[in-house]
Write a structure and sequence with these properties.
This protein has 269 residues and is of the alpha/beta class. The chain is 42% helix and 9% strand. Helix 2 packs across helix 6 and helix 4 packs parallel to helix 5. The longest helix has 22 residues. The chain starts with 16 loop residues before the first helix and ends with a helix. The model has no long low-confidence stretch (mean pLDDT 94).
Length: 269
């Protein structure tokens, strides 16, 4: 059964016009979850970023009121700069786009940033035309150019009109306990949403390979992106999805991010 009932449903695609308008009158808030289809190791689904963004948006909307737009499975990436290539264990002159490392078995679906920006601009304009007071973009993807596109457009739209305030969230970072890529934190939150999303057996056992090399699996802890890579460019034990991806860790991460979103919405008035 798709519909959960008129009182509980916040997903706009399952609401009738009258239900949408009554929710808008009560709380003029609309959420847009965003994330690409991207390689997240052999053990997690391609939709990690978008699934995470969607669940967080739904969790926040059930607290703040408002509705949630259908998740935009879209994102962009750029070539890795020399310093990050070095931290990841590659040569400084290698050409690697996003998480499409040479050894992965399935490439990510990345849009060109100009296409991503055009689609995003259209979404923002439609929400403004509908007269919502607040648009909150829940973004699950951490690429710099992807984040910059969202934030630049939000600043432009906020400066150009006063009807709709646009906010965005960067999921991850030390304020949420650190977040790498397909590491223990991302794996844990997928397990929290649905244990069937994760197959740890798809990774080599610890007896076979004690530490996962970034370059071999495109699984990277926070230090691999911030200049403090693990020894030999490997995932630290505390961030290894085979060891530390507990459901409780996922629950805590989810709760912390939802709390931040709700706080942002309250501050927006």
């Amino acid at each position: 059964m798709i519909r959960t009932g008129a009182k509980d449903e916040v997903r706009i695609q399952y609401l009738r016009p009258g239900e949408i308008l009554s929710r808008k009158k009560a709380k003029s808030i609309i959420y847009l979850p965003i994330g690409p289809l991207e390689w997240h190791g052999p053990h997690c689904p391609l939709g990690v970023d978008a699934i995470n963004a969607e669940q967080l948006a739904l969790g926040a909307a059930r607290i703040t009121g408002g509705v949630v737009l259908p998740t935009l499975y879209m994102g962009t990436e750029r070539e890795r700069p020399p310093d990050i290539l070095k931290w990841l264990g590659f040569g400084r002159n290698a050409f690697i786009e996003g998480m499409n490392f040479p050894k992965i078995s399935f490439r990510s679906f990345y849009f060109r940033e100009e296409v991503f920006a055009l689609v995003l601009r259209n979404y923002f304009r439609m929400v403004i035309d509908h007269g919502y007071r607040l648009l909150y973009v829940v973004n699950g993807h951490g690429a710099t150019n992807h984040l910059n596109a969202i934030e630049r457009l939000a600043r432009e739209m906020n400066a150009g009109q006063k009807k709709t305030r646009i906010l965005s969230l960067r999921i991850g970072g030390r304020e949420f306990g650190g977040l790498g890529h397909a590491d223990a934190s991302e794996t844990a939150v997928m397990r929290y949403y649905d244990p069937a999303l994760v197959d740890i057996e798809a990774l080599p056992g610890r007896r076979k390979i004690r530490r996962l090399k970034y370059a071999d699996y495109a699984i990277v802890d926070d230090g691999g992106f911030s200049g403090a890579p693990g020894k030999g460019h490997t995932v630290r034990d505390g961030n290894d999805p085979r060891i530390a991806a507990t459901t409780e860790r996922g629950r805590k991460f989810f709760a912390a991010v939802v709390k931040q979103i709700v706080s942002d919405v309250k501050k927006a008035g």
